Amino acid sequence: MTSEALNFDSLVAAIERTHSALAEQASKAVNLSLTLRNWFIGYYIAEFELQGADRASYGDKLLTELSRALRDQSVSNTGRRQLYGYLAFYRTYPQIVRAASALSAQVVPPFLLEEKVRTLSAQFPDAPALDGEKLINRLSYSHFEQLVELEAPLQRRFYEAEALRGNWSVRELKRQIASLYYERSGLSKNKTKLSATAHAKAETLQPAQIIRDPYIFEFLGLRSQDTMGESDLEDALLERLQEFLLEMGHGFCFEARQKRILIGGEYFFVDLVFYHRILKCHILVELKTQAFSHENLGQLNTYVAYYKKHEMTAGDQPPVGILLCTRKNQALVEFALGDMPNSLFVSNYAVEMPDKAAMENFLKQLEKEIGHDE
Q1: Which residues of the chain have pLDDT under 70?
Q2: What is the DSSP string of 241-255?
Q3: Closest to 162 in 3D by CA, of 148, 143, 145
Q4: Which three-class secondary structure state does DSSP give residue 291?
């Protein structure tokens, strides 16, 4: 651009282009670093489980103890549930190591990683076929979180390809998965038309969506309340909620927090587990820092069914689930009653269980104190 051609409008356009280009470059660099960091965390955990000299001392408590130690070291995004996710990410995408060659020498000797990849490739022959470098340069770690949850390799590869082709945002990927796009495509006679329809109104990923992601803020060490991520908010709320239920004095006995259960070869985590000595049953509490959805209730009912089958002992009543959801300082409390006789339960509930209105008010107050009221 010459000085003769420069006017106010072209000045604005030039600055906007520069800003957009460098913002996109910065967002990609930060996202790539975060994705690789999480992959390497999964790698180290897997190696420790296989070869750690003192691994037997930790057993099922490994991720709990590791999370506590890492938080003491101020390592962000290392809750137990997140660590388990990194391990699953590493095992699902072994080919990502080939994209980490420039970084691997700073983290772990490359020849060790290459040997590990050959081993993993033999163990998991159905791993995605798409190039690892293309995946981590085009998809954020939040995309991978959604993809890792898909059990069928072919289904996962379908959504990878479609997300790359449409430059989908994470929200769009979640929406397409929830709408059963893969299953509908399999049943459709005109797959091309269905694909065009799916992409026509799809939300695309913008650099600002990555830059403003609370997960990224925490990774970069920016701890403003305005950027508080869901994991921080959940931790703060659960700490106070646990105290609230115990202090009510109506028979709640604390058993576990982030209780890991194994269902069909996959681990899940129950936020809070109590045993109620009056009702003689387990109370499972799930807290969601989002609006209520039927998926949330379905998840809690799954946990209740698991406890009924695997944790009930002689004399126990069926377990009860409490679901708390928040949205813009509005609370919704749902009780999943299992198959306990309603007449019996309601009678006991009125005396021994927390009142729904009290729970809602308590949750609203907590959010205000923590600084999450919108």
Answers
A1: 1-5, 98-131, 201, 203-237, 247-249, 326-330, 337-352, 367, 369-374
A2: HHHHHHHT-SSEEEE
A3: 143
A4: coil
E strands in the chain: 252-263, 266-276, 281-288, 320-327, 330-336
Buried b (16+ CB within 10 A) or exposed e, 125-146: eebbebebeebbebbbbbbbbb
- The residue type at 260: R
Is there a contact between 323 and 336 (Cβ–Cβ < 8 Å)? yes
Give the torsion sign (CA, 97, 102, 103, 105): positive
pTM of the predicted model as reported, rounded to 2 decimal places: 0.57
Class for the domain spanning 230-370: alpha beta
Domain with CATH 3.40.1350 in the chain: 230-370
Report d(CA 197, CA 200) in Å as an integer: 5
DSSP 183-206: HHHHH-S-HHHHHHHHHHTPPBP-
pLDDT, tens digit, 9 for 90 and up, residues 288-336: 777 777 788 888 889 999 999 999 888 888 888 888 876 655 677 777 7
* Strand 320-327 relative to strand 281-288, pairing: parallel
What's the residue count for the chain?
374
- Tens-digit pLDDT profile for residues 108-117: 555 566 666 5
